[in-house]
Structure formats: structure tokens, C-alpha cells
Design brief:
Radius of gyration: 26 Å
CATH class of the largest domain: Alpha Beta
Largest sheet: 11 strands, mixed
Distance between the termini: 16 Å
Number of strands: 18
Structural class: alpha/beta
Strand order of the largest sheet: 1-9-18-17-16-15-14-13-10-11-12
CATH superfamily of the largest domain: Ribokinase
Number of helices: 19
Shape: elongated
CATH architecture of the largest domain: 3-Layer(aba) Sandwich
Length: 501
């Protein structure tokens, strides 16, 4: 996995490099400009000596823009530069780069005038932006693009101006037109905002360019989930109990479908045994729909508590299709020492009025994973969901700390966070998304997959992250037309490919 940095973490890395003499700000700025031009030429080799409009802001991002303008000019491009504010008031490294650009600098408001441009370079605001961008600034960028018509490409330096590099939200006034970049080149490492919320949509093609800080990382950074964290094969020819025994708690008759999907996911991912624990009236329905999955009667909290006294039952899933009225009591019965627990859907909603009771129930658990979508998250963690200053990673981390459990916050961008602060992001952009997962029952399969991985002995964070990754991989392997029932059946194919890799 690779680091995804916040803007503050990136600034700290740059400051540390400058403090120890590893690099100066001017050197990093020159390298950023060079990396930007290299990425542009690699992305569009057909451009040759084209026409560029470079929009420069009042800070270091603008300094990068002046380097880009100079380097493009050296390559024979026709370059126009437009600056926000008074270029004479620049200071530090940005002022130095402005002085090295020997061409004129027009007012930003004039960027829409003149010849058509093949490329518009957005070097207005970078990763440090924390306030809304004025409508007039974004209008100038739109006007520069309009000059070139359909042929104009928009290139963002570090991140599209107005995009919050930490959250992926757009910091623009309501109703303002925002055109996404065709290419974004960021420096040293991708930022969280490139992969969260609107980040993938607005960044276009994302490339990372070195600025001479290779080897410098940030232990607190979230990481990009780009593969499973657990081995998916089985070692040796052990007994089925060596791969654990997962229990999926089912709802009443005519509502067992969600639990059956979860059970199928747990079995396919490699749990040695899987049992559906259902009320007596639901057992015939479950029996008619399952074969390799075992059945047990557990219609009450007392019955479930008695069932899980068997210590071989080492991972439980509570929530899918359960019914809110029964869920709280069943969660308390399921939680206990020596057992891992996955809570989804109704098992979370049942504690909306008293989230503290949920957290108390989890205290004695061997390891717990909560798998809410944003609606369920808002019921259990309403203050975090309302806080517009938090990124999705911030929310998941805070929730994990409060609950004492791993939190997998679902969505097109999925975030997994552990109580100690470890976090991973599974991006929904850059050709890695699976929009077909937005279908009834897919989350139930995911809960079952994670339960199966826990039954096999996986630690909660690794099980949640691996489950999310193979779940999406199964959806991508199937493609359009996916329904939830297809997901468990795609797992063998996906796992064969991952094991072979």
C-alpha cells in the first residue's frame, strides 16, 4: 500500500527536508515544474509545440506555474501567463520563479481573451487551500478553457484549484461551474482528497511526480488499499475447523435472504464451516435455500448465547435482515471473549438512540468490525457525520476510536479505520470503481466475507480491508448486470487470480 497524505503531512515532509538541507524550496519547485511538463508530454505526445495558458496563484502553487511556463517556453511552446493579484507582491521561492519567467503576466480576469489554447494549466491554488475559492477565480479558469473549445485540456498542478486536498470536497460557491481536470500531477505522494468524495471525478488522470523527497514517508498517513492484506490460500490439508466456524444470525421467516447472502460469502471466502442461526419459523426457508451451510435454531438472545458457548464458533455476523426490534439483544448475546464480531445494518441501527450501549457491549469482544454506509454511520455517530470539517478518513478514525472497533465506512470510496488510527482508503476512481455494487444485498455479502476471514484467523483491520478489496474485485470481474447473488460465485475466480499473483 502507498501513503495518501494530508496537506499538513506534506508540508511537514517538505519542511523536514529543507531543515536538514536535503532540498531547498526552490529546488523542489523546479522539480515540480519539470515533473509537470514531463507528465504532460507523456500524456499527450501528439501536442508537440502547442499553445498553453498558465494561470498562476499568489503562493507556491503559482511559483510552480511560473516554472512550468518557463520550461514549456524552452520547448518551443507559445505560452501566456495570467496571475491572480499583483505578481510583484509574491515572496520567497514563488517570487524567484516569477523573476525567472521573462514574459509578461496578464491579469487573471483577461485569461479568456486571445487565441485558443491547447492546454490550460491551473496553478492557482494547491493543497494548502482551506477556504472557498471565489466565483471570479473559477470563472477565469472556465473562460480560459472556453478559448480552446473542445480541444482544450485542463491540467491541475498538485490538485484542481478549489478541491480540498484532505477531504475531496469542492470549496467553491454554490452554483459555480467547475470543470474537472484532464490531468492532475501531484508531488511526492497522492493526497487524500485525490481519492475521496469528488476527488477522482475532478482530478482526471492522476500522476505522482518526484520532487527529490523519495524515502520520506509519514507513519500517520492513511494508505491506498491496492491489494488484499491477508493470504487467501489455505496452507496444508488441515481439518475444516482449522479454518474457523462462522455464524450468521438470520432474521425471521421471509426475511432470511440477507443472512443467506452473508453466509454464502463467508463460505466462499474460505471459512471451514458456516452456520445460519435462525428463529424456528425461519429454519424451513433457510433449509430450502442452502446445502453446505448448516442450520441452528437461535430465535432469542438466550438461544444465541447458548449456541455460542461452543468455542469453535469463533466469528459471528449480526445485522443483515435481522430486524431492529431483535438486534440489540442479539448483539449483546453475540459479543464475548474469544469471538470476533461483524455488525452491519440493523445491528447498528438498533443502537441509534443509545450508541454508548453498543460500545459497551463490544468491550469484551475479541475483535469487532462495524460496516456502516453513511446513513447507518450517521445514526450511531451523528456528531461526526454532521461535522463538515472532517474528511471521511477523519470520521472513520474518530468512530473507530470511540467504538473500540474497526470501522469500514462504505461508499464509492471505502475507508477502513482501526482504533489506533491506522486507516486505508479503497478508491472508487481512476478506473478502479465498481458502480454495480450499488445493488440490494451487496453489503450483506461483504459482511459475510469479512466474517469468513475473521473465522479463518484474520485480524479485524486486515479482514475488513481484504474483504473490501475482494468484494470489489468480484464485482469488477462480473461487470454490468451484477446482482448480489453473483458476488460469492465470483470469489473463487478472483482468489485464484490473487493467489497466482
Amino acid at each position: 500500500m502507498t501513503d495518501l497524505l494530508t496537506s499538513a503531512q506534506m508540508r511537514a515532509i517538505e519542511a523536514a527536508a529543507m531543515e536538514c538541507g536535503e532540498a531547498t524550496g526552490a529546488q523542489m519547485m523546479e522539480r515540480a515544474g519539470r515533473g509537470m511538463v514531463t507528465a504532460m508530454r507523456r500524456t499527450w505526445p501528439d501536442l508537440g509545440r502547442a499553445r498553453a495558458v498558465v494561470l498562476c496563484g499568489p503562493g507556491n502553487n503559482g511559483g510552480d506555474g511560473y516554472v512550468i511556463a518557463r520550461r514549456l517556453g524552452d520547448l518551443g511552446w507559445r505560452v501566456e501567463v495570467f496571475g491572480l493579484g499583483d505578481p510583484a507582491r509574491l515572496d520567497g521561492d514563488a517570487a524567484m520563479m516569477r523573476a525567472l519567467w521573462d514574459g509578461p503576466v496578464g491579469a487573471l480576469t483577461d485569461a479568456g481573451q486571445g487565441e485558443a489554447a491547447d492546454v490550460v494549466v491551473d496553478a492557482l491554488f494547491g493543497t494548502g487551500l482551506s477556504r472557498r475559492v471565489g466565483a471570479e477565480v473559477l470563472a477565469a479558469r472556465e473562460a480560459a478553457l472556453a478559448r480552446g473549445g473542445a480541444r482544450a485540456r485542463l491540467v491541475a498542478v498538485d490538485c484542481l484549484s478549489g478541491l480540498d486536498a484532505d477531504s475531496g470536497r469542492m470549496l467553491a460557491e454554490d452554483g459555480v461551474t467547475v470543470t474537472g481536470a484532464d490531468l492532475t500531477v501531484t508531488f511526492h505522494a497522492a493526497k487524500l482528497g485525490h481519492h475521496l468524495a469528488r476527488g477522482p471525478e475532478l482530478s482526471g488522470r492522476l500522476e505522482v511526480a518526484s520532487i527529490g523527497l523519495d524515502g520520506r514517508d509519514c507513519p500517520e498517513a492513511a494508505q491506498l488499499l491496492d491489494g488484499p492484506l491477508l493470504a487467501l490460500g489455505k496452507a496444508g490439508a488441515g481439518h475444516k475447523y482449522d479454518s474457523g466456524h462462522a455464524v450468521i444470525v438470520a432474521g425471521p421467516a421471509f426475511r432470511t435472504g440477507a443472512a443467506r447472502l452473508a453466509a454464502r460469502g463467508a463460505l466462499r471466502i474460505g471459512a471451514g464451516l458456516v452456520t445460519l442461526a435462525a428463529p424456528k419459523g425461519a429454519l424451513p426457508e433457510c433449509a430450502a435455500q442452502t446445502t453446505a451451510i448448516m442450520l441452528a435454531e437461535a430465535g432469542t438472545a438466550k438461544a444465541l448465547s447458548d449456541l455460542v458457548q461452543d468455542t469453535r464458533l469463533n466469528a459471528l455476523c449480526v445485522g443483515p435482515g435481522l430486524g431492529v426490534d431483535r438486534a440489540a439483544a442479539l448483539v449483546r448475546a453475540a459479543a464475548g471473549p474469544g469471538r470476533a464480531l461483524v455488525l452491519d445494518a440493523d445491528a447498528l441501527t438498533a443502537f441509534a438512540e443509545a450508541p454508548g450501549d453498543l460500545f459497551a457491549a463490544l468491550e469484551g469482544c475479541a475483535g469487532a468490525v462495524l460496516t456502516p454506509h453513511m446513513g447507518e454511520f450517521a445514526r450511531v455517530f451523528p456528531d461526526l457525520a454532521r461535522d463538515s470539517t472532517l474528511s471521511k478518513v477523519d470520521m472513520a478514525r474518530a468512530a473507530a476510536s470511540r467504538a473500540g472497533a474497526v470501522v469500514l465506512l462504505k461508499g464509492p470510496d471505502t475507508v477502513i479505520a482501526a482504533p489506533g488510527g491506522r486507516a486505508a482508503v479503497m478508491s472508487g476512481g481512476y478506473g478502479q470503481g465498481a458502480p454495480w455494487l450499488a445493488t440490494a444485498g451487496s453489503g450483506d455479502v461483504l459482511a459475510g466475507i469479512i466474517t469468513g476471514l475473521l473465522a479463518r484467523g484474520g485480524a479485524p483491520f486486515e479482514a475488513a480491508a481484504t474483504g473490501a478489496f475482494v468484494h470489489r474485485a468480484a464485482a469488477r470481474a462480473f461487470g454490468p448486470g451484477l446482482i448480489a447473488e453473483d458476488l460469492p460465485e465470483m470469489l473463487p475466480q478472483v482468489m485464484r487470480g490473487l493467489i497466482a499473483d
